[in-house]
Amino acid sequence: MVKLPVIAKEKRTTNPDPIDVHVGTRLRLRRNLLGLSQEKLSKVCGLTFQQIQKYERGVNRMGASRLYQIAKELDVPVSYFFEEIEGEQKSPCAALGFAENEQNPLSGVAFEGSELLYRREVMELIRAYYKITDSKTRRKVYELIKSMADTD
């Protein structure tokens, strides 16, 4: 009988995997941008809101089928959850799942880690802006805000 070598198992820590935390952070960001509560998202996915909380904190891992389902509900490609991992920096708009809208990145704003985009006020402003259905009115609001911010 041949003895097989013992392969040391990688010791699992109690800390969540950084990739799971990153995916959870992207899930929370997109959910908030769409104005969905954890409860609403959990209902459409057939989960409990506590499960969504665990996904967002990275405590629980999402399987491929669950990740696909959530991506579909949030109207983003699965790759959205993995953007900006290991130095893969893309434009701030692409990081928010807006790249499919062919929008230009914001200019004149420093995006150090995109902290600005995680603020509740910014997300509410973005949601309100895109709720304006008339494109001419939306453009006027854009021009108004831009003119108020210009200090040149």
Short description:
It is built from seven helices and no strands. With 152 residues, it is mainly alpha-helical.
Explain how this protein is built.
- There is one protein chain.
- This protein has about 150 residues and is mainly α.
- The chain folds into two domains: about 20-105, lambda repressor-like DNA-binding domains (434 Repressor (Amino-terminal Domain), Orthogonal Bundle); about 120-150.
- The chain is built from seven helices and no strands.
- It has helices spanning about 20-35, 40-45, 50-55, 65-75, 90-95, 120-130, 135-150.
Tell me the CATH architecture of the largest domain.
Orthogonal Bundle
The residue ranges in which pLDDT falls below 50 over 5 or more consecutive positions are: 109-113
User: H/E element string?
Assistant: HHHHHHH
Write down the Rg.
20 Å
Q: What is the CATH class name of the largest domain? A: Mainly Alpha
Q: State the domain count.
A: 2
Count of individual helical segments: 7
State the major sheet: none
Overall mean pLDDT stands at: 78
Helix content: 40-55%
Q: How would you sum up the global shape?
A: elongated
Within the CATH hierarchy, at the fold level, what is the topology of the largest domain?
434 Repressor (Amino-terminal Domain)
Strand tally: 0
